Amino acid sequence: MFLGPPGAGKGTQAERLRTELDLAHLATGDLLRAAVADGTELGTEAKRYMDAGELVPDEVVIGMIRERLAAGASDAFLLDGFPRSVPQAEALDAMLAELNAPLDAVIALEVGRDELIKRMLGRGRADDTLETVENRLRVYEDQTKPLFGYYDARGLLRTVQGQGTVDEVYGVIKAAVPAQAGQ
């Protein structure tokens, strides 16, 4: 699993690791879009929330992850974008225990606030204004950052400095991933 603030490089690094270790990449945004496009029952339910501009409830996201893992991704997978809070992590843990698919490691990318703001403002996306970037970082600090302690207490957290070149950061990530990952 990858954790880290917006702009830390989770998506870039997750894609490299997924490719190298032949992992199923479970990115919640992708799962939601695919389920909606496929018209699945969970996708239809998720669409109602998305169309209303609301967050998709945890139970729906967990259900989508469960479906994907049950469809054959349970041997080697990479979670990206979920969980985002301790209650979500607890629900995920319960589901993974039922599927006998425990996490091997949680890679936490840490990047300084000034660098994160610079990266996000440099992307050129319409929704990456200074105000929205600062709000996203506040939400991350309040809701997602507590997961570092949650997973550290379970012996799963591997903290990686996310500043440097993409290759330098990837090298540190690879060294932090347990040898059995992807097997």
General description of the model:
It is a single chain. The protein is mainly alpha-helical. The protein has two domains: 9-103, P-loop containing nucleotide triphosphate hydrolases (Rossmann fold, 3-Layer(aba) Sandwich); 105-173, no CATH class. Helix content is 58%, strand content 11%. The chain is built from nine helices and five strands, in the order E-H-E-H-H-H-E-H-E-H-H-H-E-H. The chain has helices spanning 10-21, 28-38, 41-51, 58-73, 86-98, 113-122, 130-144, 146-152, 166-176; strands at residues 2-3, 24-27, 77-80, 106-110, 157-161. The strands form two sheets. The chain has a three-stranded parallel sheet, sandwiched between helices. Strands 2-3 form a two-stranded parallel sheet. Helix 2 crosses helix 4 (58-73), helix 3 (41-51) runs antiparallel to helix 4 and helix 4 (58-73) packs parallel to helix 5.
Topology:
Layout: E1 2-3, H1 10-21, E2 24-27, H2 28-38, H3 41-51, H4 58-73, E3 77-80, H5 86-98, E4 106-110, H6 113-122, H7 130-144, H8 146-152, E5 157-161, H9 166-176
Parallel strand pairs: 1-4, 2-3, 4-5
Helix pairs in contact: 1-9, 2-3, 2-4, 3-4, 4-5, 6-7
